[in-house]
Amino acid sequence: MARVAGSVRVAAAQFAVGEDQGANLAAVLRAIDEAAASDAELVVLPEFCNHLSWYRDRAHALREACRPGGPFLAAVAQAAAGHRMFVKLHVTLATEGAAPDRDDGMRITAASLLFGPDGVLLGRADKQTLMGSENDHLDPADTAGPVIDTALGRLGMYSCMEGVVNEVCRGLALRGAQVLLNSLNSFALDEASLHIPVRAAENKVWVVAANKIGPLIPDGHLATVSAGLGVPPEALHGAGESQIVRPDGTVVARAPRTREAVVVADIEPAAADDKQRPDGTDLFAARRPWLYGPIASEPRPPAPFPAERAASVTVAVLRSAGQDEAALDEAVGLVARAAAAGARLIVLPELFLWPDGVVPGDAPDPSSLMAAAVDALAEALRGTDALVACTLPEAGVHTGLLIDAGGPVLRVPQLHSSARHSGWAVEKPAPPLTHDTSWGRVALVVGDDALHPETFRLAALAGADTVAVCHTGAEPWEHTLGLPERSAENRINVVAAGHGQGAIHALPENFGLWQSREGGFTGRISHPLTTPAAGPLTLAAVHPDQAARRLVSRRTDLVDGRPWRLAGALIAPDPGAPAVPEPRTT
After folding, report:
1. What is the helix (H) or strand (E) element at residue 147, kind and residue range?
2. Using CA of residue 466, residue 472, residue 476, residue 478, what is the dihedral sign?
3. What is the side-by-side order of every strand in the sheet holding 434-436?
4. Beta-carbon neighbour count of residue 522 at 10 Å?
5. Which of 285, 404, 465, 507 sits most deeply, having the most CB atoms within 10 A of its CB?
6. Would you give the DSSP letter of residue 194?
7. Is the pLDDT of residue 582 over 50?
């Protein structure tokens, strides 16, 4: 394969792992050899390469765990040195040092290890967010993983469940990582279709992700677990589709679903240093760290919802494309239609009175038009309990409004700076983001605040079950990956409208795997049920009561299980790229 000038060749390997450590090591070495044969300078291997993550008890996990300096790690280090390549390995690792609630004097972690081309261990990142039964026998990380400066670029490591929530990858990217290396042990099809590529796009970094194939449960237990869960045995196999993803979310190499494979691609790590959006906004410079304190704080229950959340509510999104008075007349008519059809929440595109959601710099003072718009929208709701979400320039600020038949009930200014709204978006103190209705708690996200995963995390922490989003995307990933992921990772319904785009992302009732299910298993664990906007008015149902179900697996809560103790980079005014810690010896 011809090498692209100025690039780095990387590989992602997928294979099956069982209970025989000798066979598992052979699979690891075979993958390293195959990657080297393709001239890869770096290979990423799946999660738990030494043994299945299924253990009978803590003692079993301790027996099967790799040891620093042990034969399994020594063989991998030797292979890295023999091929003069970087190897990202993931294993269960036992090290000296007491862990909370453990009396064996050892820490057993799910550890990502990076070996350099001389075979030396360059860095270790213990898994921060453990999945399901991993919590029974393994210890979570007590430090955030390093960003490792190498000849290939600045590398960060994470694994599986850490990519189903946003904080770990966000922290690595904020600290300067250009390439994120993800090892997975997952049967979920939405890893490949959603969780892996969105981490690249939302942080504008490269992602190299390696998943498993084959059973993820020991052969002796597979039939019993399959029958108990009511899913076919193949649903408990690794989902494959290992992949390499560009900083815009485009997958440039993907492995098959079920076959052992190594995929390679040439990447340019330095491209991840450019965080600019098409309008010139620097995605990271626009962040508001002072706003994100609750994300890095101990979980607290949100204010109680005063009533019972509805099981199903009809909502609507509009795609108004008029201008000024014509746009207002069109929107008012559509709002009235939606309310008459039973919609309880109706979302308009941001700045719906102007084409593409941008107020021209030479536009006249919009204050009189804005007042007329609010009155007309409220009038369209007369006799109903519906709400309209829209954004308008108010007192020089791009402001989100939630309006009922009596007028505005919630105002939220755009919280993040944005070049395309430079004349209207002004940083303000954090306002309330939510409003309680008779059927659920609604949050409002304004314009380019939708680009930041932190915005939706704050809404979830405030107890929102449904988020109205008035945002017109400038890059494809913002609607195809970003908004579905905000629904999935926070267990919230997302109702999003934009100029010429939009969708309703409803929480599925069949969530996770280890819980009761209605109907067959689709392979998707947390992906929302998406209804794309079609035509000027689209209606669909969302499920507010489903927001209470946040356990993606036993003892793994999508929101309260976030790694809040190690999320310091998210709230630091300038996370920078801290010095790489001394390598831990193996």
Report:
1. strand 147-150
2. negative
3. 434-436, 441-446, 466-470, 493-498, 501-506, 529-532
4. 13
5. 465
6. I
7. no
- Are the CB atoms for 185 and 138 separated by under 8 Å? no
Q: What SS3 class is residue 212?
A: coil
- Percent of the chain beyond pLDDT 90? 82
- How many whole angstroms from its chain centre is CA 85? 30
pTM of the full structure:
0.95
Q: What is the pLDDT of residues 470-508, one digit of tens each?
A: 999 999 999 999 999 999 999 999 999 999 999 999 999
Q: How far apart are CA 112 and CA 168, in angstroms?
A: 13
Q: Give 330-339 pLDDT, tens digit per residue.
A: 999 999 999 9
The identity of residue 310, as a single letter, is A
Matching residue, tokens 């990380």: 141
Question: CA geometry: angle at 405 spanning 399 and 408, to 5°?
Answer: 20
d(CA 207, CA 242): 11
Cα dist. 457→53, 261, 268, 489, 574 in Å? 29, 36, 31, 9, 20
CB atoms within 10 A of CB 57: 10
Alpha helices in 39-153 (DSSP H): 58-64, 71-83, 134-137
User: Quick one: tokens of 116?
Assistant: 């350099």
Note whether 585 and 121 are within 8 A (CB).
yes
Predicted confidence (pLDDT) per residue in 315-327, tens digit:
999 986 555 568 8
Give the helix/strand (H/E) hosting 539.
strand 537-542
Return the H-helix or E-strand segment holding 328. Answer: helix 324-340
The Cα–Cα gap between 580 and 578 comes to 6
Other C-beta atoms within 10 Å of 119: how many? 16
Per-residue pLDDT of 400-448, as tens digits, reads 999 999 999 999 999 998 998 876 666 666 789 999 999 999 999 999 9
The pLDDT of 83-112, averaged and rounded, is 88
Q: Alpha-carbon distance 135 to 145, whole Å?
A: 19
Distances (CA, A) of 60 to 49, 356, 487, 488: 16, 59, 37, 34
Q: Please name every residue paired with 554 in a beta bridge, in sequence order, or none if there are none.
A: none
